[in-house]
Specification:
The protein is of the alpha+beta class. 48% of the residues lie in helices and 18% in strands. α1 packs antiparallel against α2. The radius of gyration is 23 Å and the shape is elongated. The termini are far apart.
Amino acid sequence: MTTSPTPAGRTSRRRLLAAAPAVALTLAGLAALVATRPDGRFAVPVVVIGLLALGLPLLRLRSGRPDVERRAVGTSWAFAVIVWWVPASRLAPQVPGWAWTVAVLAGAVVAYGLGHVLAGPDAPHPSATGGAPAGAVRTPLAPGERYLWARSVLSRPTLVLAGVLVLAGVALLLAGGAAPLVVVLIAAAVVTTALTAVARVRVDDAGVHVRQALLGRPLAEAPLAEVRGARSEQLDPEHFRWNEYGVLRRTPSVLGYRARRAGEALVLDLTDDRRFVVTVPDAATAAGLVNAELDRRAGQGAAGAAPSC
């Protein structure tokens, strides 16, 4: 007896196929990069670029997270442009280095967008039906009352990682001979990591949103239509890897944002049997608001509700 693949499975397969041409271009670019320097001068940069360009996207394509897979396809196409930086510049040596840098970075942005388009839309998630579970904590809401709950969180381990990347970049520059491509990639990683270290957690009638505090870019989101219930609990560090901080991406069954090793966390049960976890102060109030909104949308009262903490 055979079973047809799930929508999520079909989406993952399509995205593997969408990334395949980019991986081929990246391999060709790495080979051309080595060929430009047969004396072995670019050996270390080629290894670094190869690990970044091939390892990160391919690992994330098997994450089970639709949003992560979509970004992985875009990243693979962006790297396919970046690795051709040096080989292409040798075809037109009269063009200034800064012009090549601008052109390649602009091309990488366009290629990232192309990868998003080729990845296609995410598979649909089942919608929640009914209110929050009986006995769940609820924050009382009047009919038609609007609300907004927000807190800022800081992931110190993520900031430390950004600092380590800065030191690595400085060491490469002081050692001399570092390829501009490697320095640019490290600088981009530092900026991206630092921006992720400070997040703003927001709860409203649309769901739970975790965004960059500075730019407002979404880091993790749980639409209310995909939430079955919410609760506050103490985070058990034994359930996470030692390096799982910031945006949670490695485990298909858990997503969200981890700022601290342990402590109070907002936990949402989603309709696809995953959990959305955010370490944030006053998580009980946030959970109560989510549950109250679920009841309100389902047209239920607060019968059987636990009092808000």
